[in-house]
Design brief:
Number of helices: 0
Distance between the termini: 39 Å
Oligomer: single chain
Strand content: over 45%
Strand order of the largest sheet: 2-10-9-4-5-6
Largest sheet: 6 strands, mixed
Length: 112
């Protein structure tokens, strides 16, 4: 069971950018899909982005063209580049292997 630790969340102004990082405790080479989810206050956790073992990317519609997910196999790291940030993306962001493991999350807050 891989352990995941998210980092990079912060308080930023609207229009700014952030890079979230997910560090895995072991190799992610054989994991079929790594994903980012988020949970806004008072709402259910929702899918944000994913990247497959062969670098196929999927995004929720609201972040297409604005967020980009990357996989660094050598460093066992998944990153999420977040551009043109708006208050609507505020929430706790979680990394997952899409099967059983989750990190504890990192907070992203975007002010108007």
């Amino acid at each position: 069971q891989v352990q995941l630790v998210e980092s990079g969340g912060a308080l930023v102004q609207s229009g700014g950018l952030l890079r979230l990082r997910c560090a895995a405790s072991s190799s992610i080479f054989n994991i079929n899909e790594m994903s980012w989810y988020r949970q806004a206050p008072g709402k259910e956790r929702e899918f944000v982005a994913s990247i497959s073992r062969v670098s196929i990317r999927n995004y929720t519609n609201s972040v297409k063209g604005l967020f980009t997910i990357f996989r660094n196999i050598a460093g066992n790291i998944i990153t999420l580049e977040m551009n043109s940030l708006k208050p609507e993306v505020t929430g706790t962001y979680y990394c997952t292997d899409t099967e059983a493991s989750w990190g504890l999350g990192t907070q992203v807050t975007v002010s108007p």
